[in-house]
Amino acid sequence: MKVAFAVPAKKIKKAIDRNYLKRIMREVYRKNKFLLKDSLHKKSIYITFIFLTNERVHYKQMEEVLLLLLQQIQEKYLSHTKHKE
User: Fold this and answer.
1) Residues 22-51: what's their mean pLDDT?
2) What is the pLDDT of residue 39?
3) What angle, 0 to 180 degrees and rounded to 10, lies between the N-to-C axes of helices 15-32 and 59-84?
4) Contact 78, 58 (CB under 8 A)
5) Which residues, including other chains, have CB under 8 Å from residue 9's CB and lie 6 or more apart?
6) Exposed (0-12), middle (13-18) or buried (19+): which is 72, by Cβ within 10 Å?
7) What is the CA radius of gyration of the chain?
8) Pairing between strand 46-50 and 2-6?
């Protein structure tokens, strides 16, 4: 599984703010990637998290959103594999 993080320059003008947001996205993912099943980690899946708001957010806000996204990814993967069986 490959994961990428993007913060568009059109949304966040300053590079320092874009880098900050990518850094906290990576950190939140690193601390919570265990929520995804091992079987998902072994697949050739590419996930890109794209920051789409105009405002700089804090760590706690980012953590809440990314945790929700990780849960949704896990649920979609599980429902997709159940339909295949």
Assistant:
1) 86
2) 66
3) 50
4) no
5) 15, 18
6) exposed
7) 14
8) parallel
Single out the residue of 20, 9, 33 nearest to residue 59, CA to CA. 20
One-letter amino acid for residue 72 of the chain: Q
Question: 50, 6 in Cβ contact below 8 A?
Answer: yes
Q: How far is CA 44 from CA 37, 53, 69, in A?
A: 14, 29, 19
**Residue-wise over 12-44: b if at least 16 C-beta within 10 A, else e?**
beeeeebebbbebbeebbeeeeeebeeebeeee
The continuous run of DSSP H or E covering 74 comes out as helix 59-84
Give pTM, 2 decimals. 0.80
